[in-house]
Amino acid sequence: MACDKPQIDKDGNGILFYGDARVNFVKDIEGQPNVFLMEVQAELERDTQATPEPGQFYMIKGSRSNVTFGRPISVYHSERSGKTLKVQFMILEKGEGTKEMRKLLPGDMLSMNGPLGNTFGEFNNETNGRMAIIGGGIGVAPVANFASSLPNGSYDFYASFKSGSYGLEFINAQNLVITTDDGSRGIHGMLSAAFTKETIQTNGYKSVFACGPTPMLAYIQSVCQDAGIKCYLSLEKKMLCGVGACLGCTISTKDGNRRVCKDGPVFDGDILEFSKPNGTRRQPLSVGEKADLSVTISGVKFKNPVIAASGTFGFGQNYRGFFDVERLGGVSSKGLTLEPKPGNKGERIIEITGGDINSIGLENPGVPHFIEHELKEMLALNTVTMANLAGHSLESYVKGAELLDKTEVPMIELNISCPNVKAGGMAWGMDPSCAAECVGAVRKATKKPLIVKLSPNAPDLIGVAMACIKAGADGLSLINTIQAVAIDIEKGRPYFDNIKAGMCGPAVKPIALRMVYDVCGAIKKLPENEQVPVIGLGGISKWQDAVEFIMAGASAIQVGSATFANPNAMVEIIEGLEAFMTSHGYKSIEDFKGIAL
Length: 597
Description:
Layout: E1 17-28, E2 35-43, E3 57-62, E4 71-74, E5 77-81, E6 84-92, H1 96-102, E7 109-116, H2 121-124, E8 131-136, H3 140-148, E9 155-161, E10 175-180, E11 187-188, H4 197-203, E12 207-211, H5 214-227, E13 230-234, E14 250-253, E15 256-259, E16 266-268, E17 295-297, E18 300-302, E19 306-308, E20 330-332, E21 349-352, E22 355-358, H6 367-380, E23 384-389, H7 394-405, E24 411-415, H8 432-445, E25 450-453, H9 461-471, E26 475-478, E27 482-485, E28 487-488, E29 493-494, E30 500-504, H10 509-524, E31 534-537, H11 543-551, E32 556-559, H12 562-565, H13 569-584
Parallel strand pairs: 8-9, 8-12, 9-10, 10-11, 12-13, 19-20, 19-32, 20-23, 23-24, 24-25, 25-26, 26-31, 31-32
Antiparallel strand pairs: 1-2, 1-7, 2-6, 3-4, 3-7, 5-6, 13-16, 14-15, 17-18, 21-22, 22-30, 27-30, 28-29
């Protein structure tokens, strides 16, 4: 790839803007549940800094944001007076970043850099004759900006929407044609109901400029090729940098890889290669048909697959003041050791980007106290109780299991991340042989279903998982926290007395998902009578995360630190799961469990 030319003025200063812009307004578009218009105002440092041209975009995000990277948003309209630049963005709320923007208020600040990408004007200079401009959905915004830069009546404009219309205020077309899927405005139907090869030939179009959903762009490319005219298409792709450095937004073309942010977003339609749709869209469940969220794990039935993770939910009582705990599929108890444990000294928690590092040290009242006091309250909840059992010696594990076996607790979750004194302090779950020894001993001490919780720090996680299954595990849960370190820069020493501690939170989710995927894949290769269920956990904070883990093979999921930030997180996940299953036609969790393997 050729070296990009620097965007600088004659004095060597960059012509792009990066800084905070003030929000002037955010307005919902009438009749559109997820589209809004936002205007921001930026004060440029120099006269030589660029003014956005039609087709270009900015990377933007709220100055105070939960997302790391800006979102690429095309310019809908802009005005400049001296060094004061006003830019309007018409935005479709799609994810966390755009959801945050929709909540911004006048006077709030927005982080913005740009203008980025090429322009429609670069290609307009190559064309002669009558043109058609086409926008689909939110793709209307950049082509409407382009249309507003052209002489009145010099083009025809086609706008396609699901329902209603928007973004047409600055358009002065010779002919404005609107199509809607529901027939609420203009022609009833998709773009193909109004724009065809015959339309091109009848109107004498020499070129087409368009932006919209990929299927629509592929259709435009096809009919333009059939009609023998040029088309120029503005594409959308996820980006990190927006300036061509990360190569994350490349697309395959007839001329090799091209970057949407730097070589586009506007491309000559002749070089684009659109892939065929992968599969058909699933149909929702029938009206009145309800999704069944219940799952059965090792003979124990859960009303839904959402379980409160050990160490984050106490013994099921802490969050009862916020929501109905009985809505949960299950609750895993605080980690229990045979004897009471005071936990670690010194600092125990520190917040980091995307989560926390904690060094609690398994503070708990001990198994006998739990059986006599806390267990009764847990069992009274209309949800599955899991007793999380930890230990430092084989004897303590066995004795704890023997005591729990005599109770009504329906299931034991065995934490093998504790140090094995005989192995020099290495956790039981770090080595397949040590893990098998611990699981085998506990298996003999109890007839209750035994779910073994695995450590992500094991060098051979699949080896440990297979050893646990062979030793008698009825199921596996993973992952436990990831070993991490924090440094107190004022004291110049480790933040935690034990130096190493456990990292958790949304930042670990992709790693946890990969490990669950790998373990479930390995289990799938076993003979059917040797396969065991997996409970996935690690960074799950929203229903989409839960769906990913289930598609990766998990029978259920556990939610931990997300509850600290949002006490209603698990309820929202349950509701989101049910809505997803209904909209995608999944009658049960089994219908989509492991489909990504």
